[in-house]
Amino acid sequence: MATPTTTKKSKPNIKPKQEDAKSGWTFLTNHAHVLILLSQDASQVLREVAVQVGITERAVQRIIADLEHDGFIERERIGRKNHYRILTKRPLRHPIESHRTIGDLIATIIEKE
After folding, report:
1. Number of folded domains in the chain?
2. How far is the C-alpha of 94 from the C-alpha of 80, rounded, in Å?
3. Measured distance CA(40)–CA(95) in Å, rounded
């Protein structure tokens, strides 16, 4: 399912190419996709995250719970919204990439203007 392009300048165009959408896989996990989107807008509504990643809102909630449980993000309630803080100094989980941090991953993916 193709996702809509975003209108804010700080967010990348995450609409997959048609040939990528047909193949059914990507190089990054949904956990990484959620983390990257939250790094761009820490107060983003989970429904928006779900649409951009191409998964259900419930799946995003499970991913957030995983990331929070394992110490990769912290959640703070501000009014009626959650605000997420990414702990960028945490190493990536797999032994092949554990020499890199969450911050390294985000910096690699996100274009700085």
Report:
1. 1
2. 35
3. 26
